[in-house]
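Practice problem. Given the sequence and the SMILES for NAP, write out the predicted structure.
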Amino acid sequence: MRKIFKTFFAIAFLLGMKSRTNAQEMNKVPTVKLSNGVEMPQLGFGTLHLPQETCAENVANAIRLGFRLIDTAKNYANEEEVGRGIKMGGVPREQLFITTKLWIKDYGYESAKQAFEASLKRLGTDYIDLYLLHQPFGDVYGAWRALEELYEEGKIRAIGVSNFSPDRLVDLCMTARIRPMVNQIEFSPYFQQWRAKQWNDKYGVQVEAWGAMVSGSHPELFTEPILVEIGKKHGKSPAQVILRYLTQRGVVTLCRTANPEHQQEDINIFDFELNDAEMHAIDLLDKGHTMAKDHRSPEDVEWFHTKATR
Ligand SMILES: NC(=O)c1ccc[n+]([C@@H]2O[C@H](COP(=O)([O-])OP(=O)(O)OC[C@H]3O[C@@H](n4cnc5c(N)ncnc54)[C@H](OP(=O)(O)O)[C@@H]3O)[C@@H](O)[C@H]2O)c1
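Answer key:
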């Protein structure tokens, strides 16, 4: 009897592994080449605001489904859970692309180096694929020197910035020894930063979108008639149309959900293509302003330095 049970569980385990492998094969995410030659997945799983109790399992499930880019930050206070989820996901470390970010409070040369080591420890890894300056405030230039050195020491595979408007980005590019490889900025159908993207392109900086689905704060996005209509034609949901639209335009895109069905949906966007007319129709949804904080407004800069600091 015990032998029958053992055989049954072994078969069930192997079948489970096989279906996970199939899901990962089906949901293979294409990559883009960064300016230093590192390959970065075009679609990534975001972890901001994931409930603490489900965060590790959400990350593990995302990896089982085929996500390889996992995005976190010191400021999300979840690097330990993300690190646990990465181990539970069961994919070799070298196949993953882990991003984390330095928070303003840790800017400056010395403190940036210490904060980086602390992030490594919390994540349970000995290198980071992409390390970003989270905000364009504080001692950006001291912090950037630390990132350049950590990159040269091989502890980070690519370095970058986040929320840098074109003026801040160009200034950093003009003074840095090593230019940022990525700029993670707000980017969605409601806030399309194509002009900013042109400046990033000019300096060889890959644009990465956060808030592609407006962080869930504008549910009407998911019932936009044009997204629903285009989705119906392709047998896809409005969320899938949004993610396809951004990745098709060359923007590496993050998505976040604690819902396993939405995770499955979000990764399943590379088996269809939007035509020019569909792309142009989505262009028209742009409202031309941020749906979150304005990184160029003095009030919001004060907020980042005081209220948002952990
Ligand atoms: N650098 C920065 O300053 C910065 C700022 C913000 C975010 N980020 C990064 O970018 C990531 C993504 O941005 P975000 O967290 O702001 O949110 P987001 O991905 O724009 O939106 C998340 C919302 O979309 C919903 N959603 C996801 N897939 C869906 C689907 N298939 N159908 C319907 N609804 C769906 C989620 O609801 P359900 O949970 O119900 O599915 C959630 O409410 C973050 O997690 C973080 O890693 C970076």
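Check your answer against the key. The mean pLDDT is 94.
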